[in-house]
Amino acid sequence: MSLTRKDIENIARLARLELAETEIPVYVDSLSKILDFVGELERAPTDGITPMAHPMPGLAQRLRADEVTETDAHQRYQRNAPQVEAGLYLVPKVIE
Amino acid sequence: MTAPALPATTVAGLARGLAAGRWSSVELTQAYLARVTASQSELNAFVTVTAEAALAAAAAADAARAAGKASALTGVPIAHKDIFCTRDVLTTCGSKMLANFVSPYDATVVSKLAAAGTVNLGKLNMDEFAMGSSNETSFFGPVRNPWDIKRVPGGSSGGSAAAVAARIAPAATATDTGGSIRQPAALCGVTGIKPTYGRVSRYGMIAFASSLDQAGLITVSAEDAAMLLGAMSGFDPRDSTSVDREVPDYVAALDAPLAGLKIGLVREFFEKGLDAQCEQRIREAIAVYEKLGASVREVSCPNLPLSVPTYYVVAPAECSSNLARFDGVRFGHRCESPRNLNDLYSRSRGEGFGAEVKRRIMTGTYVLSAGYYDAYYIKAQRVRQLISADFARAFESVDLLLGPTSPTTAFEIGAKVDDPITMYLNDIYTIGANLAGLPGMSIPVGFADGLPVGLQLVGPHFSEARMLNAAHRYQLETDWHLRVPAAYA
Amino acid sequence: MEWETVIGLEIHAQLATRSKIFSSSATAYGAAPNTQANLVDLGYPGVLPVLNAEAVRMAVRFGLAIGARIARHSVFARKNYFYPDLPKGYQISQYELPIVAEGALEIVLDDGTRKRVGITRAHLEEDAGKSLHEGLPGVSGIDLNRAGTPLIEIVSEPDLRSAKEAVAYMKKVHTLVRYLEICDGNMQEGSFRCDANVSVRPKGQEKFGTRAEIKNLNSFRFVEKAINYEIERQIELIESGGKVVQETRLYDPDKGETRSMRSKEEANDYRYFPDPDLLPVELDESFIDVVRAALPELPDEKAARFVREYQLPEYDAGVLTASRELGAFYEEVVRRVGSEPKLCANWVMGDLAAFLNKDNLEIGNSKVDAAGLALLVARIVDQTISGKIAKDVFEAMWESGESADAIIERKGLRQITDTSAIERAIEEVMSKNPGQLADYRSGKDKLFGFFVGQVMKATGGKANPAQLNELLKQKLAG
Lengths: 96, 489, 478
Known about the structure:
The complex is a heterotrimer of chains A (96), B (489) and C (478). With 96 residues, chain A is of the alpha+beta class. Chain A has helices at 5-14, 23-38, 74-77, and strands spanning 63-64, 84-85, 88-92. In chain A, strands 2-3 form a two-stranded antiparallel sheet. The two termini of chain A are 38 Å apart. The longest helix of chain B has 22 residues, at 373-394. Chain B has a domain at 11-258 and 443-449 and 463-488: Amidase signature (AS) domain (Amidase signature (AS) enzymes), CATH 3.90.1300.10. In chain B, helix 7 (222-232) runs antiparallel to helix 15. Helices cover 40% and strands 19% of the residues of chain C. In chain C, helix 9 runs antiparallel to helix 10. Strand 1 (63-64) of chain A pairs parallel with strand 2 of chain C.
């Protein structure tokens, strides 16, 4: 599966990853190789086989009681934030 | 390495000594901390050493013991893979993205082991975001194999394996998504266990591939693993994939005789690719099992050869989504002077993630994208079903599967970094168990050209007790698990 | 060229649970920024979602109320995209297997006709946070209190053919979710939001035209205006040779127009896949039966019952069942009065509604409660006061909080029903107005009203109108 430079640029944009100019051909090459490698799966006889989303079949989602148990700890959490003001996380202006 | 010798080096031995009053937790912790310091420049096993907190916890453990409130693990030092969130302690996941991240909370695994009385020596180095089989992708530099410091310890739990192998920590927590506990354990000549998916809580364990990740241990012996696994297992209401099932007494089950144990050898694991000397050690180990009363037969899991390609669709897909939260907004690395929102995201992530992580994020983004989802992701999940069915069929006629953990012994640092596929194939024997959610172990069974060789055990869901029993009985017959590299003896 | 409009609505209703859908943080509106956002809501490394049982119950309640199939097996999926109010970089939603499948609602149009509007699906998902732009030069501030609030997204079939139909449908859904007590319907606070998909096609054409999506319409008025503007815009565009572009647009209420959203330059590839941190939701019959048993009487059922039990016209029944509280208020009045359900209806829909509007109050905060109004109506029924006087009494009740009886007593407003007293008053008026009497008797029938007015004035408005009319006719006839 041969990817093009454009493919890599599109994927990188979707994934919000800035790649250096020199990196791009490296990723074109390695991603093409990886996709070739996983392309082997095509041969597997999977007609009528259910996709396995969870390794433990037959389990159901547990439902949690509707109770508020959390208290405000935003000051502690916001110690990790790069830019905070008046309790808000700041980002470059979002234009709608 | 010049550092204090240890009075005992297994968790069981240390615990017995603590209980008998032969040594204190503070003494032990000091000894281990000294060994950590002495080895760090050579092994680079640790990212953060929490000396002050460890000594305080040790003192508290000694006080608890004096007050008659000690239990089996009180005062035993351990270390945590840097993928587990530890409150008020740096939690980096081996990445520049989290190099400044001080977690505001403890992972469930961390709090359970602390509640059991263990003392945390610090956070162990690992492949970045658990992606790797050699611990060469860490932002904090590679970890070296104590058996040969030119070689890799394996990955992603390279720091955990190296630390236990060099006896600079008695035991370490670790995680396994495609073999990241078992493979480094094999390469470093120590014992590793990846429990059944859902046996141990994933809450607070930084996610790589959610349907594959599991927390486990790297220890000197199966007995040690049994003691610690009992303490860290169990249902956690904060983890929806955590299974509500009683935790058996793994220690009590250790000594059962193996007569009648039915062992399966997976034909596909002995096909080409396995190093000849490694195969020899595996066969010798199997002979020991036969001597212990087990019967051996061949089984076939015909879809297993597809496990690596399956994994390299599913795991990158899940990780591409799990790592989207690292965007420079609420925590983690942020680029300087972002020009706009997209620049903030793209540059923070471009700078914060290493090459392998970016490669997997992009692979995952691709296989989930419109037009490719059915051909890649859904296809892989169907093959996953086939692989699980193969295992289930095998377990109809045998109790445990035995085989190699890794196709080779530890390779040289730098030998495989350029070719992702070659690196990925290191996990060829281990990945199947993750896809099927099965428990797996690796135990040391000898050496090939002076480097450790590991034997893999895989069992049906929730068969940890039987696996640990099988591993323990082998370790009563042999002493491979007690070998220590000369420099660290 | 004759054009036909095709509209589908996507409504997002915030579920009125105490805690969030995947975390135990509070959902209360109006808290200081980020004080109701825990580690799970913030998308911290290592955190995991756990599903709120009440959110599931509320979704099932909605599904049952619209006659939909409830999925016994439904799956949460990740919708992946980057936006600052989306902390994990994905929204947990439902994609291929939603909890509620096809259902329908009936709406009543202006001309009284009924129309069935299909509902394709309804699913559970988490809400995003909020971006604030005011007072922050060059930056936006992110508040994640709202992140993780449970939403039900209700998707209609493209069955609506005009802005009016769309509003009728939106109002129907709004009433229903409040009846079911699954959403408070507060559009100012963002509890109930609507996106409209609008396209046009030549009348008779089967194929749908290209649609544009208008986002985040938070009032019935805006929905109507935005859709009408969009229809015009699309028709003009096509008629002048252009093509409608499939895009997202925002309604600007100040300018009264829709405009393209600049930030969404390219169509997002959301890369949906089942969320591996959540297991499939498996509902058994007993779970659904418990929810079904607890369903309240639904608006349509209640309106039909009002028509049957109280012999009310459909219009009245519709107005009185607009909310559960109003319906309950009305029934309480009728129960206490014990008769005259139409009179009670007139009072609730008329004077009471007018005063509630004047003071901007909801029925729950009415200054005159059901018992109070019932007493007033009872005094009309038992002829203590006339209907006309009752209006003044009601106003006094509203302003002072006194009971009807207290006001009637205090102001001496009892109706005069004594025949001889009324006759005396009539005789007095007749003797004081001989000219008009002569005119009336010579054929000027219109003067009857004059005499009625005069007698009413003489009796301080308290003469029983029916008796007055009867006696006056007799006496004027001579």
